[in-house]
Design a protein that fits this description.
By secondary structure, this protein is of the alpha+beta class. The chain contains three helices and six strands; from the N terminus they run E-E-H-E-E-H-E-E-H. The protein has a single domain, classed as 2-Layer Sandwich (Alpha-Beta Plaits), CATH 3.30.70.120.
């Protein structure tokens, strides 16, 4: 396992399975992400434009990419994410296996 050199995971949520899958596919097709994992059956509880607490099912997307793609990713979110205020949280990797890092960089066109 090696120290990471910009690899990161970005987390977002989308309310419908088809929208989440389409969003994920486009990220990989455009080589903004090497891989996106869609986790089903999430339940989000939050306040939105009121004092009432909303409770909605959501799909969690784990987007595997590199920090050099974050500007492009943010632009993609602005244009394509179905929410007016999308969750966009970036988690830098601390350690990454050399084989996975090599694959990730190849997939997003950085090698």
């Amino acid at each position: 396992m090696n120290s990471a050199h910009g690899e990161c995971i970005v987390l977002t949520t989308i309310d419908h399975e088809e929208k989440a899958t389409r969003f994920a596919r486009e990220l990989v097709e455009e080589r903004i992400a090497a891989c996106v994992t869609r986790l089903p059956a999430g339940l989000s509880l939050y306040r939105w434009e009121s004092e009432d607490i909303a409770q909605e099912p959501e799909h969690v997307l784990l987007i595997k990419t590199h920090r050099s793609k974050l500007d492009k990713l943010e632009s993609f979110f602005e244009t394509n994410h179905p929410y007016s205020v999308p969750e966009l949280l970036v988690f830098p990797a601390e350690k990454v296996s050399s084989a996975y890092s090599k694959w990730l960089l190849e997939e997003i066109g950085l090698s």
